[in-house]
What does this fold into?
Amino acid sequence: MIKIKLPKKRNIEYIKEYFKKFGIFRHFKSDKNLFSPNLNDLYLIHQFILLNKRIAVLEFGCGWSTLVMKHALNLNKIKYLKDIKKLRKKNYFEIFSIDNQKKYLEITKKRNNLILGKNNKINYIFSECVMTKFNNRICSEYKKLPIINPDFIYLDGPNPFSVKGKINSFNMSHKELMPMSCDILKIEHFLIPGTIILVDGRTANARFLRSNFQRNWMHKEDLKNDQHIFLLNEKPLGLINKEIINFYNK
It folds into this structure.
């Protein structure tokens, strides 16, 4: 049985003190041209990675989350580096962050280099996002995907109004429509048991994923925080995968 640990609910004062303890709270300054950081969401992301001993992250949509997830991975690296070297994992304690808007990639990269240093093992991927079909359902996809097998996937992109192209004259540039990406579905069968997916908002997209997944995913909807959590709960693929799952559960 693969276990998943969920973060405890905390009030905003606790969360502010939590980030102050790590010395990164002072960096959470809003910009008139950018989205203000949602400290509650960032706290939950940080805790998911720490509690579940995540090793490698794939992120759709960069931002404050990139900084917080890399910070959490750095803490895991301090605790678990010796254990990870025995598990034959690649890209350990790295993030691959995909975005289709160069502006936000550059802002995120500049901020992270300033706070974390330039040699921070964050891989930024610019990729156009276009209309497509998956199982004959209209949706969107990034044209580039990195070569990585993550154990944590964070879905918070793309902005539907930035998706290019049309399918049967239909696109997502309408206020009453919502994001509907299929990228995770395309790599589903490469993912290893124990993989966690966190969907930020995007309930329609989370339901689209759940309807089209072909493997055994546990699903929990967190209504209060507007998040969806998926856990790939299957028997290990082999001895190496079994060792990784034992590491998570230990």
The chain has a mean pLDDT of 93.
